[in-house]
Amino acid sequence: MTPAPLRLAPVFVPRIWGARSLAPLFEDSCQQAIGEVWLSGEACTFVPGPDAGVLAGRSLGEVWMTLPVKWTGTQLRGLPRIPLLVKFIFSGDKLSVQVHPEGKTEMWYVIAAREGAEVLVGLEPGVTEKSLRLAVDDGTAERCLTRYRAHEGDAFFVPAGTVHTIGAGLVLCEIQQHSDITYRMYDYNRVQADGTRRQLHLREAMEVANFGEQKGGRVVPFQTRRGALESSLLAACPYFATERWEFSERIPAETSPESLELLIMLSGSGRLHWRTRSAQYECAQAWFLPAGLGPYELAPETTTRLIRTYVPDLKGSSQ
Q1: Which of 163, 208, 181, 171 has the alpha carbon at shortest distance from 284?
Q2: Which of 111, 162, 225, 244 is least surrounded by Cβ atoms within 10 Å, i.e. has the fewest?
Q3: How far is Cα 139 from Cα 205, in angstroms, rounded to an integer?
Q4: Single pTM value for the model
Q5: Superfamily of domain 6-218
Q6: Contact indicator for 29, 21 with CB cutoff of 8 Å
């Protein structure tokens, strides 16, 4: 099957802290609170179309191990699943104070933010395991974390082991290693629909939390301009590289044989051209670009902003 850009269908995931309005990415309101929209999870399916072939309607989890290197990339050969998990996050309420173990480094790009919205990333100087445990017990865990005001266009890096939480009123694009392991330290004593509280994992959290130098926090993007393309490098680590692209005129690009690319459309619309083919792209879509695709072009009908992410190097990865 000849490599071609394929769109991935999103999976909408309810969360206790989610939102019923998914603006500005999706127009329809939801009957239940949606917290996450998975864009490259194993349950995400390839959207049927003239170029999807045998992949049409099949999930990433189902087909990943059968994809040839010209689709996945030479650096991803042999991995049991796609190493990049991309989500949209809709925080109608605060998320729990939490930490992820090795294997789940992540970053956030702020798509929209309510006035005064915050994220908390990393422990304040001097916080110890003992003082954090005491703060969890008396309901003041947030005071142990570093606060950042979040505005549209901001980016934050959250290495594994970094204690963190996301405040209410945010729409984020999250790029992470493909893991869904979260250890909750504190959850504001919230009660679920069945009357129970969500499980906490304080012992596990303390075992993996970083009490030394904090390496996460706000990112200062490295910005460049190439012709009509304004590009900002938001993160580069062994697990993923992430760029924000913005353009209002046609731009050329090319995939690398080392890794597939994911393009996440944040705003705008237009056409994606490759070889003698083309396809329409729209806001909130996720596109899987095979490593062997080679040259392609993006021709915007309206000013387009997107996230491009790929795996630059797997050395040192715990995957």
Answers
A1: 171
A2: 225
A3: 16
A4: 0.95
A5: Jelly Rolls (2.60.120.10)
A6: yes
Tell me whether residue 140 is exposed, middle or buried, using C-beta atoms within 10 angstroms of its C-beta: 0 to 12, 13 to 18, 19 or more. exposed
Report the top-level CATH class of 222-310.
mainly beta
Domains of the chain, residue spans: 6-218, 222-310
Chain CA centroid to CA 115, Å? 22
Tell me the per-residue pLDDT of 31-84, one tens digit each, with 9 for 90 and over.
899 999 999 999 999 999 999 999 999 999 999 999 999 999 999 999 999 999
- Both tokens of 258, joined, read 């080392």
315 band by pLDDT with thresholds 50, 70 and 90 = low
Asked if residue 159 has pLDDT above 60, the reply is: yes
Nearest to 283 by CA among 86, 89, 26: 26
Give CA torsion, residues 52, 53, 59, 65, to 10 deg: -110
d(CA 57, CA 69): 21
Q: What kind and span of H or E run contains 187? A: none
Residue 31 CB neighbour total at 10 angstroms? 8
Query: CA angle 112-161-61, nearest 5°?
Result: 70
Counting Cβ atoms within 10 Å, is residue 178 exposed (0-12), middle (13-18) or buried (19+)? buried
Q: What are phi and psi of 180, to 5 degrees?
A: -120, 30
Reported confidence tier of residue 29, pLDDT bands at 50, 70, 90: confident
CB 45 within 8 A of CB 58: yes
DSSP classification of residue 8: E
Eight-class DSSP state of 165:
E
The residue type found at 276 is T
Q: Where are the alpha helices (DSSP H) in 160-266?
A: 202-208
- Please choose, from the candidates 2, 64, 38, 4, the residue with its C-alpha nearest in 3D space to the C-alpha of residue 289: 4
